[in-house]
Amino acid sequence: MAEETQEHNETSDGPEWAKPLILGRKAGMLQHFRPDGSVVGATVIVAESNVITQVRTKERDGYTAVQLGFGAVNKKKLSRAELGHLKDNGALKHLREIRVDDVDGFEAGQRIGVERFQPGDKVTVVGTSKGKGFQGPVHLHHFSRGPKSHGSDHLRRQGSVGSGTTPGRVLKGLRMAARQGADRVTVRNLEVLKSDPDRSLLVVSGAVPGGRNGLVMVRKA
Amino acid sequence: MQNILVMNDVLKTLASEQLKADVPEIRPGDTARVSVRVVEGNRERLQAFEGTVLRVRNGGLDKQITVRRIASGVGVERTFLVHSPRVEKIEVTRHGHVRRAALYFLRERVGKSATLREKRR
């Protein structure tokens, strides 16, 4: 699916994967008035209490990344192994590793807030899109539908799936009905419209993948 | 579940921060005078648009009003976002008596038949 291919070239983006990165929850969308009076659709992200739970280094782990923890949860919900890993960082629901080229300035136990983002910054947001269930070829691949009447039995079916005796099979990779959605989706180049450290809020231009309350990762583009 | 409720509060408070405090109550059939900021080159001025409120859409931050007037013989309708910073001021000068929420029937009328009876207070 087209959505999946977007994320794979993340690392090729070079050393500009700068330090602002955070996990949050999508709260929903509203209209935002810019100072000049123009209106943009905007998404509100709530990102309270991010903690760095681990720093991955080249020497020890073979790659560099920052592990962020987010979302306070009752510690009975976690296993002892999970609590042991979190040490004094409290019980956290979500842990996500984010690859960075340079772990300088990151250390375990450090708190990360939305003050790392400034209005006007361009950010990349990663989330899980809404699941659409098992979808037919018309919805999933934008195939044309068949005729509605005159005895048609092809209303929302796909057309031919290939030749006959040669090759005698259906070629691999042919687009067919399948599950849609619930994929990791990356949206680039969204603008930070507002960053409110007091309430741990981030307002970002445009739409962000997933439904309300969905986990999203924001980093500077 | 609890979490979603809190999220809705967040949206409501953020929206209410952008609301204007001085917006009068506007209803379909009212005659309204809307002062809009217009940018011409590098200077800004106020332009007034006065006419009948044809409809009110949405509520809260997204509230819109459509105002219709006859300008040099041509009907002109403009839709304004009530809480936009470009809308400087809205004055309601007259309350018309109407029985529906969207006054599309006014579009087919000209002259006296396009006027509305004043609402009795």
Mind explaining what this structure looks like?
Chain A has 221 residues and is mainly beta. Chain A has helices at 2-5, 58-61, 80-86, 137-141; strands at 21-33, 39-46, 50-56, 65-72, 92-99, 111-112, 122-128, 133-135, 178-180, 184-196, 201-205, 215-220. In chain A, the strands form 3 sheets. In chain A, strands 1-2-11-10-7-12 form a 6-stranded antiparallel barrel. In chain A, a hairpin with a 4-residue loop joins strand 10 and strand 11 (201-205). In chain A, 22% of the residues are buried. Chain B is mainly beta and 121 residues long. Chain B has a single domain, classed as SH3 type barrels (Roll), CATH 2.30.30. Chain B contains 1 helix and 5 strands. In chain B, strand 3 (64-71) and strand 4 (74-81) form a beta hairpin. The longest helix of chain B is centred in the first third of the chain and has 17 residues, at 2-18. Chain B is globular and about 50 Å long. At the A-B interface, strand 1 and strand 2 of A face helix 1 of B.
Quick recap:
Chain A has 221 residues and is mainly β. Helix content of chain A is 9%, strand content 38%. Chain A has a single domain, classed as Translation factors (Elongation Factor Tu (Ef-tu), domain 3, Beta Barrel), CATH 2.40.30.10.
